[in-house]
Amino acid sequence: MTNRSEHATVTGRTLGQRQPRQRDAILEVIRDSEGPLTVQEILDRGQSRVAGLGVATVYRTLRLLREGDQVRVVILPTGESRFEAAELGHHHHFHCRSCDSVYDLDWCSIEMGSERPYPGGFVVEDHEITLYGTCPACA
Q: Parallel, antiparallel, or unpaired: how do β-strands 92-96 and 102-105 relate?
């Protein structure tokens, strides 16, 4: 038996629709953030928009949003997973060691290209940079 809630289409992919208000609130929280968020941060911010939002719903919704190419995972060098809107272009992150917030940096100082030779015969396909320090609010 197929659950009707599993047949809603968003961006051409199937997403659960049991709680569209909750899903929309979670996506809004992620899109409104200044950087990638932890599950707990998404939960805390989402609960202010939708009463009764639970951690299981956040995890389930994040999985569905990832499958629908609306959210992507950012894995910090510490191994911590955070989530950000998938429509963001190439960018890097700043991790504040004081408050533990992570911010998007809208620039890249590294010029890459497949035509550029790299020492040792490496073929570079992509890169991620996370800078560490103190954010303006903590400075």
A: antiparallel
The CATH number for 36's domain is 1.10.10.10
- State the pairing for strand pair 81-85/71-75: antiparallel
pLDDT tens digits along 81-127: 999 999 998 899 999 999 999 999 988 878 766 566 678 888 787 88
Q: How many residues does this entry show for the chain?
A: 139
Shared domain check, 70 and 36: yes
What digits encode the pLDDT tens for the residues 13-51? 344 445 689 999 999 999 999 999 999 999 999 999 999
Residue 45 lies in a domain: yes
Distances (CA, A) of 40 to 22, 99, 111, 126, 128: 15, 15, 35, 29, 23
